[in-house]
Amino acid sequence: MALDPPPQVVFVNPSTIPIHLYHSQLPALPGTEKACLLLARELSSQRPGGVHYVGNVEAGQWGGVLLHPLADLQRVLALTAPGPVVWVRAYGWEARSRHKHERTHVLWSGDAVEDLLALGYRDEIIGRVDHPDSLFAGYHRAVLVSDWQRRQWLQELATSPPLTRIYNLTDDPDVNATCNPAAVTTVVNTSHPRKSLGLFCQVARAVCAMHDGFRFVATSSPRLYDGDESEAVYVPIVQGKLANIGSFAQVRERYGDVVEFREPQRSDDLAWMLSRADVFLHPDTSVETGSMALIEAMKHGAVPVVSQVGALPELCGSQGLVVPGTPGERQFLVNVVNAVLRAKGHGIDEADVLARFGMDVIVSQWVQLL
User: Fold this and answer.
1) pLDDT digits (tens, 9 = 90+) for 72-82
2) Which residues of 58-83 are buried (b: 16+ CB within 10 A; e: fewer)?
3) Which residue among 80, 161, 209, 315 is the one 20 to 30 A from 334 at the CA level?
4) Do 248 and 206 meet the contact criterion of CB atoms below 8 Å apart?
């Protein structure tokens, strides 16, 4: 009697950002695309059955994962039944496909501003704010990336599929990589430029005016997200509003004397930079659901300095400094500057970080779910 083949897993990511893979290397950014491919690669080696990734990629194979362009979605769904499908930030997109292909469909929120959906923080969501049920059409479960995000969903949404919290998956650091202590304190920001780049630059200006022993490095280039340098950079002002301080190109020119702007292409480039960082500065105002950049930085030993917004305090836990105050108020900027000045002496408890965010911990949760 022939045995049924093991079920296959399909990841569907409708993001328009093209992903460029470098042999065994992942791209440095953007975060959710990287997390999804990393998870697909790890699952391909830890469970029976093929693993497929359907997204803005060229057809082929990478790290044991079968890659398919979005145009092949219906064919892949038909060929991989009845295995589970993980839809990355798809929400109401392709609801008819989920009804047509009966199997387990999982919504993975990933880590993005759009994931705040109907919670009143943002307007640019995928789906309908006035009819949030449409966001969950055809899903059997939703995976969220923080307990904070899970609480918001439970409070604000009348109906939703069962919710599971699994933190974002990031690479573990190379234990053989060592870095000698430097006289200069290196402060980094690796988040999307719309999140905290403006404040990062303002803090860099203030700190460098007082001390010579600091170096600020940002990887917040729109080009890494398929954008261009004409995109605006914002800072918070009073009453929760945002002020445009110029295009990315203008900001880079204005603050180039105190901030080094880099564009790492591969994940090992980013890891090398983080391994030499002392402080990860992310005074975010966008209410992040689960910052991959923060998790990556802590894994590499950088002390986080973050705003008291969204899931950032939860992710920091007992590590780093959560800055009190409201972004946009003058006192908040003062608080951030003071936190950066005293952050280096705090250190990171690597055991605590890996116990919460280690690859084996996160992947095992996904294996159990799927």
Assistant:
1) 999 999 999 99
2) eeeebbebbbbebeebeebbeebeeb
3) 315
4) no
